Amino acid sequence: MGKVIKPPSMLGMLGGGQLGKFFVEAAHRLGYEVTVLDPDQESPAGKIANKHICSSFSDKSSLDLMINNCEAISTEFENIPSETIKYLEEKVRTHPNSGAISIVQRRVKEKEFIKSLELPIGLYEPIESAELLSDLEDKKIFPAILKQSKFGYDGKGQHHVNNLTETKAVLNDSNEGEFVLEKKIKLDKEISVVLSRSSDGVSKIFPVIENQHKEGILDLSIIPARVNDVLKIEAVTYALKIAKNLNYVGTIAVEFFISNNKLYINEVAPRPHNSGHFTLDACNVSQFDQQVLCLTNDNLLDIILEKNAVMLNLLGDLWLKNGEVTIPNFTQLEGKGINIHLYGKNEPRAGRKMGHITVVGENIEDLIIKAEEIRSKLWEM
Ligand code: ADP
Ligand code: MG
Q: Of the bound ligands, which one is closest to the alpha carbon of residue 181?
């Protein structure tokens, strides 16, 4: 294990969204300073960082500034150009590595990688253009979801298609190059594994999370997942194998589908994950704390789940429910075991993640009811 980077060193963060903001808060708590690189003047992380470099992720002079200012650099989203990570990692400690990012930022490459590890994955076909669609009908892939290979998140860039004609229509209408066509899986449940891996290969695994999505966007996470231990252990084993084979250092998440009591890997996120937000309020150490410890080469902490938890995402729709922007009255919700996190985004949009609420306590079914009551209250206000 290399040298530990001690506080108050300057750390770098590529990306200024809420995941970056939680990283900055964790780094500050541990005594570090942070420089955030993000093109948005008003980015949540940029606003609270010691320094905000407001530029694109491929601006060379800004990257040189990061190299000169920071002892180590991490990222908060997968769409940073992998050339950027490559440029940085040659000069300064940067995690995750460019090879890992270049695989997981393209769905097609990510799926090939998962297959190469002989891990379970649903039926899919890489699609390079409409002309190359050949005998798909024979492969029993429909009904399917056609997903953009790059830049998709929160269900964006996805189309539900029932046959070849519908698939061709979407492809002909699109300027995007690469797609992947995935057979729709009958989902019994979705789960995720969030873990942090240090440079000497030690991993600390957070409790397995059960996830409920609405229209492709994470809605509710339940911790610990209500899934049998065999599946949990299997999911953790697969996530560890993925992290190891990516030479991954930092916090990583793997999303899984469960269908007929069998796991299928959905996708990998090379960063902390929305479903891991409960760690801020229910664990002794958060996914962001561990991200900082991985980056600074410090020892990771053993994880203790202190309370069970249910997390509810707050989307911009709630701010727009009256047809104009109204900020919900969150102070009315305050109470024991209710943790409200708002990301400080100026512009609420439908489907945009504006914050989340984590309720913690003992009985999971009670916590789910409590989260649903909070949701109803917010919509009735
Ligand atoms: P994103 O990158 O936007 O999170 P995902 O591929 O994870 O995209 O898809 C978002 C959600 O859509 C999933 O969590 C799941 O609920 C649903 N979904 C995606 N792919 C499939 C599939 N092949 N079969 C069934 N549901 C799917
Ligand atoms: Mg996903």
A: 1
